[in-house]
């Protein structure tokens, strides 16, 4: 019988987790490049979030690229050569071709060496939703689950990872092909704030519109309440990400703390350039476990 090898969990920067998180948990990640003006930002040359969003506000529009097959192989080869198997949690296939490229890269590497084992999971998640699923997978690993057991847990629970968010301007999402022109135009009305979620196929879906920013932020908590179901008292950790609007994220955090005593930790982080290029400044997103998305 083939001896079971130790494994590591890898992902992409689309998790929008603090860089310290990856270091502390031994997580290697690929970076979806972001081009702004004539500069390509990547893992070795990242852009300060404040500068990134200020440039967007001043009219400089970024573009992003997916992780290609060679990028994925470059991430994994050193890990495999050290004798580890790999569980890779990939950015939603409903938003990027990254998952498919990672799947193909894994297949090619395993064909090169039959000792290699790489499991690639399409998380159907984005931003700190992908990050929260990563955290949950790391918990499974810490509890002694095998690579197959952890992968199975993620596959089974990934559609319980709920994403609800509001944006200031839907045209950023339309420009990147994430929502239709009709949805973008309907959502771009003076003082009307779009409310969106990520569906079971990992796509961004416009659900409704709220009049005014404060009502939109309050609506995030209502949207969470509708989705919790059997997870109502089981969410010990909630993640909130934002597009350079920390005060709004803190306002939502305060609402959550008042409403849910069972939540032990609420983590806030800025949305990175890859996701921010499509969501834009002023985005506030909330991620939690619920019965359905």
From TrEMBL:
Pfam (any one): DegV
Gene3D superfamilies per the UniProt record, alphabetical: 3.30.1180.10, degv family protein, Dihydroxyacetone kinase, domain 1
Database matches in InterPro entries: DegV, DegV_C, DegV_domain_contain
PROSITE patterns in alphabetical order: DEGV
Keyword Chloroplast attributed: no
GO function terms (MF aspect): lipid binding
Record's keyword terms, sorted: Lipid-binding
Function: May bind long-chain fatty acids, such as palmitate, and may play a role in lipid transport or fatty acid metabolism.
PANTHER family: DEGV DOMAIN-CONTAINING PROTEIN DR_1986-RELATED, DEGV DOMAIN-CONTAINING PROTEIN YITS
Annotated NCBIfam families: DegV
Name of the featured protein: DegV family protein
Native source organism of the sequence: Blautia liquoris
């Amino acid at each position: 019988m083939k001896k079971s090898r130790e494994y590591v969990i890898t992902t992409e920067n689309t998790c929008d987790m603090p860089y310290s998180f990856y270091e502390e948990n031994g997580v290697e990640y690929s970076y979806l490049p972001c081009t702004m003006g004539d500069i390509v930002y990547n893992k070795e040359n990242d852009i300060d979030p404040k500068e990134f969003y200020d440039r967007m506000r001043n009219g400089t529009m970024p573009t992003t690229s997916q992780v290609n097959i060679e990028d994925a192989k470059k991430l994994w080869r050193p890990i495999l050569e050290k004798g580890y198997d790999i569980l890779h949690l990939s950015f939603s296939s409903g938003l990027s071709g990254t998952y498919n490229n990672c799947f193909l890269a894994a297949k090619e590497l395993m064909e090169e060496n039959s000792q290699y084992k790489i499991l690639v999971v399409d998380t159907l998640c984005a931003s700190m939703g992908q990050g929260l699923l990563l955290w949950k997978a790391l918990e499974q690993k810490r509890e002694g689950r095998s690579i197959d057991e952890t992968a199975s847990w993620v596959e089974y629970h990934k559609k319980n990872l709920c994403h609800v968010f509001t944006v200031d301007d839907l045209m950023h999402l339309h420009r990147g092909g994430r929502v239709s022109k009709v949805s973008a135009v309907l959502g771009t009305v003076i003082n009307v704030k779009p409310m969106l979620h990520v569906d079971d196929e990992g796509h961004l879906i416009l659900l409704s519109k709220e009049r005014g920013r404060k009502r939109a932020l309050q609506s995030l908590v209502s949207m969470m309440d509708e989705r919790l179901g059997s997870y109502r008292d089981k969410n010990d950790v909630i993640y909130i990400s934002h597009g350079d609007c920390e005060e709004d994220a803190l306002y939502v955090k305060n609402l959550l703390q008042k409403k849910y005593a069972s939540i032990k930790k609420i983590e806030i982080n800025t949305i990175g350039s890859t996701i921010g290029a499509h969501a834009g400044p002023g985005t506030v997103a909330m991620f939690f476990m619920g019965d359905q998305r």
